[in-house]
Amino acid sequence: MILQLGMTQQIETLVTLTGTIQFASSKKYQSLEHLRKGYRGFLAKLDQRPVNVDSTEIMWITDGEALDKLRTLFSNDSLLDDKKQAIVINDKRDDNCASKEARLAIALNELSLCSHEYGEIVRTVITDIFVLPSDVAKGGSTSQAIGVIWANPKLTYTVADIIEILVHEFTHHSMFLDELRYGHYSYAAVLDQKTWAHSAILNVQRPLDKVLHSIIVATEVLLFRSEYLGHPVKPRVHPPTEILLTQLQDSISSAEEIASLHKGILQQRALELLENVKISLRKVVSRQTHHSDFSSRPINVPLQ
Questions:
Q1: Quick one: which of 126, 266, 259 has its CA closest to 182?
Q2: Residue 265 located in a structural domain
Q3: Which of 25, 197, 267, 286 is most buried by its number of CB atoms within 10 A?
Q4: What is the pLDDT of residues 115-124, one digit of tens each?
């Protein structure tokens, strides 16, 4: 969400949340290092999973018992990039784990080279990464383990592909934190299948909370392409830009239609995020009309 809302809002959210357990200290943070320690204390207070409050660097989870516990949390959540949650993550170790971790580490460093500030916030919000195999998914995040990314990149993926995985999952965690701060949904209404809308990435009907996540994630990926990576001809993780824009437009329209029919299902902050997405997409399209690496076929993006 950094490219949609800016660095300042992201930091303000982290400071606000850490202030719920360390109010006096949160007013005196003098560096990102101090904020990281406060944020990890906040995560530990949530009591979702063990958090190393003494570290300020991303940890690679390799302990078998810890992996089993995380797999259970992730397998029961529906923000994975496939809907068969119970069988998404395999219960065996990945023979290519070390190679995948090395590729992820390279991608993290390359992301920081694209934008030092972006990389620093990713390294703040994300505290742990683990690698386990899957036959159907590239990775995932869950609100039941904020700060943890499960990653399963193929060894054939380019560094840019893996950067997109990291941006994708980081944005989910930004959304989890934003929701903790503001509130996004009426969950009683979200559970009703009559309120489901069209997902921007999976391109299927899903609960509205998952759809809003898909809209924000897809927008961040497009903005990161536009700002840093360029628009790939044959991306492996997300659809090509033209297709992703079309799916995103359909998803926004679908979400807005449901929100109009079911007043109150999206709270004010969620509606603001949707409006901001449309502003961001106009910037992407405007930028690309001046570059030859983008399809010349017209794309309809909501203007208001």
A1: 266
A2: yes
A3: 197
A4: 999 999 999 9
